[in-house]
Design goal:
The complex is a heterodimer of chains A (500) and B (320).
Chain A lengths: L5 E12 L2 E12 L3 E5 L6 H9 L6 E6 L2 E3 L4 H6 L2 E4 L11 H5 L6 E2 L2 E2 L1 H14 L15 H14 L4 E5 L7 H16 L3 E5 L3 H7 L2 E6 L2 E7 L5 H9 L19 E10 L2 E9 L3 E5 L6 H8 L7 E6 L2 E3 L4 H7 L1 E4 L3 H5 L6 H6 L7 E2 L2 E2 L1 H14 L16 H14 L4 E5 L7 H16 L3 E5 L3 H7 L2 E6 L2 E7 L5 H8 L6
Chain B lengths: L1 H26 L6 H26 L7 H18 L4 H25 L4 H20 L4 E2 L3 H8 L1 E2 L2 E2 H19 L1 H11 L1 H6 L4 H27 L1 E2 L7 H11 L11 H20 L4 H33 L1
Antiparallel strand pairs in B: 1-4, 2-3
The chains are: A alpha/beta (500), B mainly alpha (320).
Amino acid sequence: MTAIDNILEIKSISKFYPGVTALKEVSFDVRRGEVHALIGENGAGKSTLIKTCSGAISPSEGKIVVNGESFECMTPKLSEKKGIGVIYQEFNLVGDLSVAENIFLGRAIRSGIVIDQKAMEKEAKRILGSLNIDIDPRTLVKKLSVGYQQMVEIAKAVSQNAQILIMDEPSAPLTNAEVESMFAIVDQLKKNGVTIIYISHRLDEIFRLSDRVTILRDGQYVTTLNTRETDKDELVRYMVGRELTEIYPERSETCIKDEVIFEAVNVSGNGDKNISFQLHKGEVLGFGGLVGAGRTELAELIFGMEPKQDGKFILNGKEIAPKNPKAAINHGIGLVPEDRKTKGALLGLSIKENINMPIYPRISKGTVIDTKKEYETADKYKNEISIKTPNLSQLVKNLSGGNQQKVILAKWLAADVDLLIFDEPTRGIDVGAKQEIYMLINSLVEQGKAVLMISSEMEELMGMSDRIIILSEGCITGELNKDEYNQETIMRMASVERKG
Amino acid sequence: MKKVIDVVRNRAIYVFLLVMIIFFSIMNNNFLTANNILNVAKQVSIFGIASVGMTYVILTGGIDLSTGSLISFVNIVAAYFMVNMNLNPWITILLSLVISSLVGFANGWIIAEIKMPPLIVTFASQTIFGGLAYMLCNGRPISRFDDAFLKIGQGYVGPIPIPILIMIVCFAVGAFILIKTFFGRYFYALGGNEEAAELSGINVKRVKYLVYTLSGFFAGIAGIVMLSRANTGQPNAGLGYEFDVITCVVLGGVSVNGGSGKISNVIAGVLIIGVLSNGMILMDISSYTQMVIKGLILLLAVGSDCIQQAKLLKTKTATA
């Protein structure tokens, strides 16, 4: 193989941190014009690897060869000059600037020293239009949903004429419809000769998009396969080093009781209108819909984060009106939020402190903490849901995504809640840990708790829910029982437009 | 990883303290005498006491600029109670502490309920209570107190001056609240991530009331000790004290971004400032030069904190 075939060659890249080897002698080639998928569990080194390519960090050993030019290490400027663009999981957008200003951030179109707002908006509109994105370029970015914000990121990279576009989990926050248009964008980019390195947890996407796929495991290169010549099982086997029997674990049929634990009656507020539903003991009630359909907003109402304007919530037969999360928790409600790192876990505190946080007044004499109880509670739930850690004083920020999620879950088990709300329970969590989270949800309902699960992953929604309620534009547009599930019906209900 | 950095950092501050002590001992024969050491401790007692409340505030990610003015205000209020109103010293102390706690509570209430930045709220109350102190005494010092009251600032238990004992008690109580009670956990949680803290069932507003109230309370104690020591109530007694207090706390490794820090290290921070001030006075360094040096040390302390944070962030994102 000659160097000209390969637009990018990773040559024996290693990255060491004190006590941690993030990457160990990783080598592979990316061919010009291909869509090259990069997969691996969390902590496999994907993020570190792309950061060495983008110049965000410098490798301890090894070389990066771009277009035949060899580099010991990259800098952000150099990589941009060499045509490498990256769409990170965290967006680099300025909320208070418009879409157009964000696309041209740092490269504003000017006439003289004055920014030419009109020209910039026109050019932004053209780029967005070419990607079938329907946003007014004058909209402030902070007003956009996560899905649209990501589209602005993609448009920004497109406007920079990147030759190699690295996409880090681009589909994670998107709804199905949005994922489809993102795929269309990727196809179009490929037609224009852009090489794409596509990182994803979702194996379906790998088969839909990629020509070849490289697997990393524990910071090491495993193999590169032609996508056409492999299948899901093989990829999963390489990723985790073990077979997964089935994706969604069964739970006992008799789990659901007739008893209603939670009920919403004509609830309005926070953008939602006239929401009514019942949730039974031992039931997993799924909430489907597009991004911005009002599902997270509903969770915020129930958890006392936002005031409702009308209607009532009934928990265990009694009407409740929690005015803040603390009150909701005291009623027996827990929330596992969508954004684990900024809302769910207290990253700078220990596992022990995170698990005990809602119940400190309960395990204290007066205000003095009973440290023995504190330790025992944490230890009990650590073992019960197998949080992998050498000790309970470990800071939560040092845990993997899956283990962080388990700590949040342990917190609600310790608080002994009756109703647990999951908002995107497995976002950004690797395949193996996902499985564990699903099993934990099952054991929760088997213990008689009720689960309200918001999910944008169609498979997860159908695989885990006993019943699905679909929201669109803040209203309930459908309810499906298990025997009625199918993707088309859900999609159709999710795209119902509000009338009047 | 964090542990290693913590250990190095913990030691760094004690090493720094030791180096300074050695330096000043060499420069001046009078420095390392029992008398002078007690002197240092006595000098730091006032901002040492106030630093306990400030530690809580900074831990939660806030700041309290009203401390110095509140010390002045309590100074005048207490003097006014005793001299102009002939109140009993003990009732005076009680009332003064209630008043200073209420001022702190007001700061906390405005910060939590109106969601104004702590910097602005406490800056405003710094100006307000600085002004009120002058209004109450018409700008003139108030003096002549009971001997019983003067004991607080000037008395001894055995060889140890009482202000030092009060400071030790404040540090002990401060550490107890932080380590043993769940309020301490709440302070760290709030400083680490306010939103996640709220979603974990912490009543964030109440915690804010509490830390600013405690900051006011400890400033009140500092004000009383100062009044007794100086034997005269001055409307500018605490002028600029918040600067020393913040320097001690930050020098003691409490992160200006909130979420991490320990009382034991704050004590080291307090001692460093004390040794530095005392040493510089013994060396006849002018007060202007002292200001410059203290400013540089504050910059150094915050700077090293920010560098640590940046390093931690880097390792964190890289291993994620």
